[in-house]
Amino acid sequence: MKWTKEALEEIEKVPSFVRDMVKTAVENEVFNLGRGEITVEDIRASRDKHFAFAEAKESKPKTKIAIVRCEIVSEVCPGVACFKAFNAKKIKFKDYDENTEIVGFFTCGGCPGRRVSRLVNSLKKHGLDVVHLSSCMLLEGDYPKCPYVEDIKEMIENKGIKVVYGTHH
Ligand code: SF4
Q1: pTM surpassing 0.85?
Q2: Ligand 1 contact via 116 beta carbon (within 6 Å)
Q3: How far apart are the first and last CA of the chain?
Q4: Which of 74, 111, 163 to mutate for ligand 1's pocket (most ligand atoms within 8 Å of CB)?
């Protein structure tokens, strides 16, 4: 099967991870049409036909999440457990797929959640979808539960952002 010079240049524009598949598909299609030479138009037609799904998947917007944690607890916690749970997509992150990213990780700023509103407003401009209130805000027993957690949740939800209680337990 012959390729025109322009066709060879065009195929190089196809992402490398699907290039061989496109090449095979184009050659089969042109062969089935009874022709012996591949043109730019053949490549474009094949790419549009066979890879619309892949392109749609690529362009699917990511789910963007932020984690808010307790200012007081942050003095003794670097946040490892939150990130471990997120990276493994476990516990409170088990319903997310790989098309998810953390766009913010910050403390509340101290009682009564002093800076949460301002930072959520800021992250909304970056497409924030969900805020997780870290498990440290929900501790009970020896450690006092955050007395403002329900207010903080309501305030975030009033901004149109989904709120999930907890991160790693
Ligand atoms: S508002 Fe709640 S989460 Fe923030 S510092 Fe106070 S107790 Fe911790």
Answers
A1: no
A2: no
A3: 60
A4: 111
- Write down the CATH number for the domain with range 2-57: 1.10.8.550
For 6-51, the pLDDT digits (tens) are 999 988 888 777 788 888 888 988 998 999 999 999 888 887 776 6
How long, in residues, is the chain?
Answer: 169
Q: Which tens digit of pLDDT belongs to each residue from 46-98?
A: 877 766 656 566 667 899 999 999 999 999 999 999 999 999 999 999 999 98
CA distances from 70 to 33, 34, 107, 139, 169 (A): 66, 69, 5, 10, 15
Strand 162-165 versus strand 130-133 pairing type: parallel
Task: Give the residue extent of every domain in the chain.
Answer: 2-57, 63-165
For residue 110, the ligand 1 atom closest to its alpha carbon is 5
Residue 10: partners with Cβ closer than 8 Å, 6 or more residues away:
40, 43, 44
Is the bond into 61 cis (omega within 30 degrees of 0)?
A: no
